């Protein structure tokens, strides 16, 4: 059926164009021969094609444009006729004899245009006559196009200020009156379209009306272009008359479009000075009108106007724009109790953006807007509408974008209250936005109170909120979120130790409730922030004034012990062990032997009880050895206990090569360059000999299992350790020991059962080159190396 209708319409349009072109041909012939009567006759017949009711507005427009082109030529002919002596008054009378009213009025408008140009009569009289005459067409589509033609031919002939048509009898008031009258009649015709035809075609009619709306809106554009309309005239005449028509038409499509037109076409300063009148119309609009969009656009325009120049800001204060907009939004929401929550949030979001642009220093205004939003959201629970939650994110992001400073945003008491209405996922999104803002602007948050407020805002990232403990979480997203929290913790700083300690305690309180998945991300940055504070206080044992409340390294270490312990409970033993060792090293630098010993004890307990994976054990034992070697705070007894334990762990690793490497690494625990009391050459030698035995055992096991002794890499590594201690002056490491080891490696490499290993060969060759290099150095080093034969 629809396809048939479209085909029929195409046929009717084609027939209309054919009839129009045929009559246009005869009209041209009459014009060429200066035959006025025939020209009028055929032009009237040509325009009769526009009397059709069969075409949709879209198709009718195609026909109208062809007629419009022909009328321009006819207008030029009329001008020529007047130059040749034909009376324009007679011509104006003559065209009114056309048989049908529609062609008659098109011809009248065309001649009227020439009449005004001739200035033989006041422009206002001709315009008034034309606009009144056009009332003869009450068919909506035909009437709209006719009046559109009238607006088109008259727009450059209005008696405006500075116009050639302005005179004693013609003023800008007449121009305004003409355009307003034409606008009013066109709007009535446009609205009438809605009520013609059966109810089932409502959608089709609305689509057709949408296609025609620009014909009506063009009048408002013409009004905005009239130079003579100053603020007073706009305030007293233009705006009240236009709004009266908008409100009285009681048509939602017309009201939405025309309100939007008013906002878009007239100057911003006019809107600002007539805010009362303009806003007063909004509550009177139909409930179905999308007021939120129109009001938002108004506030957006005013925001941009405020941002355009600092000179205009006093105007906003003078007219109390914020108070008026805030009141108007309240009235609109009150007048539309069924307005969706999305509409409410959009309005307040636009108002907040306006406030931040116009009154950036008035935090109380911004907080007032957020408070009003909270009031409307109260009792709604968590928002489930995706669009509404996105709008809340936009609302909450606006202060961050404007102030570039979370500290300022934290002063808004209603800010966290709005956040409460977001669902868990959106809460996380908003928390991420807040953290990104802090990172981007390198904001310094330096008091415990502000940190408390901030962590309340981002709690969606640092703990499980109601109902999301068992939700499926994307691992990559989760890691990214937690890493951003970790970076945030690192940014928190205050030069005052007391305040910094309070910040650390505040962060700790929040993150410890984060659950086993979050703690491995959030505890390490907290530990390192605490250790940074320890370094700051290094050397300070007790407060000189003896205040118990003062922050000391010992007090921080107690807190650290409890904090790291949470990781071992999760369990995350490898991470906990690394952090215990970091704390031990910091305690060492503060000369706190009992504290350092306690941290090592905790690390050893974790190693024994929790770390069972062989790779993790290897990493852990090397970390323990490396940290223990750097410790200078321990007395002989404590150091011996810890060293003995470390060597014991090394010898118990699963694979022989790992055992060997850990044992020879332990040799460094008995010889530390910058500690004279830790230079036990015998125990170094014992470690190296033990490592050799293990390396030998590894070769025998390889021979038994695989039929080959395997690589000599371990022997070369031990040889390098011998050379290291030999060079450092360990009396137990002599030339004979190194010589025998060199021979052992050479023998092993030449053995038929050894596995070829290019890397080991290169390593050994490099070691031999080093010995030769040291020999050639001369001096004490050269003498030392001279007896070694390679």
UniProtKB/TrEMBL annotation:
> Where is the protein localized?
Membrane
- Asked whether the keyword Hydrolase is assigned, the reply is no
Alphabetically list the UniProt keywords: Membrane, Protein transport, Transport
Q: Which InterPro entries match?
A: ARM-type_fold, Vps35, Vps35_C
Q: Major location, coarse class? A: membrane
Membrane topology term:
Peripheral membrane protein
Q: Which Pfam families match?
A: Vps35 (PF03635)
The similarity comment for this entry is: Belongs to the VPS35 family.
State what this protein does: Plays a role in vesicular protein sorting.
The protein's name is Vacuolar protein sorting-associated protein 35
The taxonomy runs: Eukaryota, Viridiplantae, Streptophyta, Embryophyta, Tracheophyta
């Amino acid at each position: 059926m629809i396809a048939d209708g479209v085909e029929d319409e195409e046929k009717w349009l084609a027939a209309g164009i054919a009839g129009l072109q045929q009559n246009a041909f005869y009209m041209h012939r009459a014009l060429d021969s200066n035959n006025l009567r025939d020209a009028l006759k055929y032009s009237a017949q040509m325009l009769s094609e526009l009397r059709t009711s069969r075409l949709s507005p879209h198709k009718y427009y195609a026909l109208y444009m062809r007629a419009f082109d022909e009328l321009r030529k006819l207008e030029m002919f009329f001008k020529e006729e007047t130059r040749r002596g034909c009376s324009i008054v007679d011509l104006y009378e003559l065209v009114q004899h056309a048989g049908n009213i529609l062609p008659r009025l098109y011809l009248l408008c065309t001649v009227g245009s020439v009449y005004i140009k001739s200035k033989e009569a006041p422009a206002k009289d001709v315009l008034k006559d034309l606009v009144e005459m056009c009332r003869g067409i009450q068919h909506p589509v035909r009437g709209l196009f006719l009046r559109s033609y009238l607006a088109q031919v008259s727009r450059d002939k209005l008696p405006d200020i500075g116009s050639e048509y302005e005179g004693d009898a013609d003023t800008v008031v007449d121009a305004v009156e003409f355009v307003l009258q034409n606008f009013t009649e066109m709007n009535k015709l446009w609205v009438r379209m809605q009520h013609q035809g059966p109810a089932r075609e409502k959608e089709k009619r609305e689509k057709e009306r949408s296609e025609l709306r620009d014909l009506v809106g063009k009048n408002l554009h013409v009004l905005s272009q009239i130079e003579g309309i100053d603020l007073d005239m706009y305030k007293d005449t233009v705006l009240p008359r236009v709004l009266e028509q908008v409100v009285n038409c009681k048509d939602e499509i017309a009201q939405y479009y025309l309100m939007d037109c008013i906002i878009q076409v007239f100057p911003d300063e006019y809107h600002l000075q007539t805010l009362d009148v303009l806003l007063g119309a909004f509550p009177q609009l139909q409930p179905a009108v999308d007021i939120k969009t129109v009001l938002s656009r108004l506030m957006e325009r005013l925001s941009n106007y405020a941002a355009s120049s600092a000179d205009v800001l006093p105007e906003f204060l003078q007219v109390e724009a914020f108070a008026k907009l805030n009141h108007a939004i309240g009235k609109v929401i009150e007048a539309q109790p069924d307005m969706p929550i999305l509409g409410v949030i959009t309005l307040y979001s636009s108002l907040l953006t306006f406030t931040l642009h116009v009154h950036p220093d008035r935090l109380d205004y911004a907080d007032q807007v957020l408070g009003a939003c909270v009031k409307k959201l109260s009792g709604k629970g968590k928002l489930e509408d995706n669009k509404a939650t996105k709008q809340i994110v936009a609302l909450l992001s606006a202060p961050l974008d404007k102030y570039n400073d979370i500290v300022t945003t934290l002063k808004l008491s209603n800010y966290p209250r709005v956040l409460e209405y977001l669902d868990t996922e959106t809460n996380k999104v908003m928390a991420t936005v807040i953290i990104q803002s802090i990172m981007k602007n390198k904001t310094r948050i330096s008091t415990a109170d502000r940190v408390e407020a901030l962590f309340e805002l981002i709690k969606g990232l640092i703990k499980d909120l109601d109902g999301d403990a068992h939700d499926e979480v994307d691992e990559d997203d989760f890691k990214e979120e937690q890493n951003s929290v970790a970076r945030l913790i690192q940014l928190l700083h205050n030069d005052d130790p007391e305040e910094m300690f309070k910040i650390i305690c505040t962060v700790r309180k929040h993150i410890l409730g984060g659950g086993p998945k979050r703690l491995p991300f959030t505890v390490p940055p907290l530990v390192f922030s605490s250790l940074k504070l320890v370094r700051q206080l290094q050397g300070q044992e007790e407060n000189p004034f003896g205040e118990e409340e003062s922050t000391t390294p010992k007090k921080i270490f107690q807190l650290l012990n409890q904090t790291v312990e949470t990781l071992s409970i999760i369990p995350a033993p490898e991470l906990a062990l690394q952090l215990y060792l970091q704390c031990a090293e910091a305690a060492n630098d503060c000369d706190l032997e009992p504290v350092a010993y306690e941290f090592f004890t905790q690390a050893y307990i974790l190693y024994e009880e929790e770390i069972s994976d062989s790779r993790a054990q290897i990493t852990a034992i090397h970390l323990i050895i490396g940290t223990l070697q750097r410790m200078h705070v321990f007395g002989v007894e404590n150091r011996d206990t810890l060293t003995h334990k470390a060597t014991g762990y090394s010898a118990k690793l699963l694979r022989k090569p790992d055992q060997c490497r850990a044992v020879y690494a332990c040799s460094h625990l008995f010889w530390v360059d910058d500690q004279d009391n830790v230079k036990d050459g015998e125990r170094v030698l014992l470690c190296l000999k033990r490592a050799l035995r293990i390396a030998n055992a590894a070769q025998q096991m390889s021979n038994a299992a695989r039929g080959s002794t395997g690589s000599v890499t371990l022997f070369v590594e031990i040889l390098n350790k011998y050379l290291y201690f030999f060079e450092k002056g360990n009396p137990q490491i002599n030339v004979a020991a190194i010589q025998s080891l060199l021979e052992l490696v050479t023998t092993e490499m030449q053995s038929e059962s050894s596995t070829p290993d290019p890397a080991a060969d290169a390593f050994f060759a490099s070691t031999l080159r080093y010995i030769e290099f040291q020999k050639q150095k001369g001096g004490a080093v050269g003498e030392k190396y001279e007896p070694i034969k390679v």
